[in-house]
Amino acid sequence: GNSVTQMEGPVTLSEEAFLTINCTYTATGYPSLFWYVQYPGEGLQLLLKATKADDKGSNKGFEATYRKETTSFHLEKGSVQVSDSAVYFCALQFYTGRRALTFGSGTRLQVQP
Amino acid sequence: DTAVSQTPKYLVTQMGNDKSIKCEQNLGHDTMYWYKQDSKKFLKIMFSYNNKELIINETVPNRFSPKSPDKAHLNLHINSLELGDSAVYFCASSQRPPGLATGELFFGEGSRLTVL
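The joint structure predicted for all components is written out below.
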């Protein structure tokens, strides 16, 4: 079946540090890939997405590139802020068939001042 | 005005009880979902309804029964609660169903259920 694997957290960084959160997927075919973010006490919200190989999704300084050859969609940000502290979820979905978004287990990011 | 709202936000109850969680969305979306988030933050799809029709029903005990009176509401009723049901339950909606959707889900804030 389809699955998403994320690096375990928590990831603890100082403000302005470079962030990478790894995400790899297993799927038959080529799904669309997503990053969702969950701030404390809130529901998840879409951060960025990519729908085909080599696409780069970007939003709020975060970027992720859809790498078909490595089945990866790593999340990066050049300079994190305290306000980026949250749980980040990688997810995949196919645009055919009735399968809901499949999420990874989430990676908690803690940014210290 | 909250787009996807769930009630209650917190629920503490005894094993064996029956409880319900309600969800409403005011986005005009056709599709709604229930996800369960366990203590390790892992999110798993439980059910999805499209315009009041059940379209996704994952391997969930039949103690869990979703009900969608209209496309703006999706409620979750749980019978005979067990310790393992303790989790955060998230309601979500999307404009169109899986297979046609863009993948953007709008989530509620979650309902934390604690079974003692």
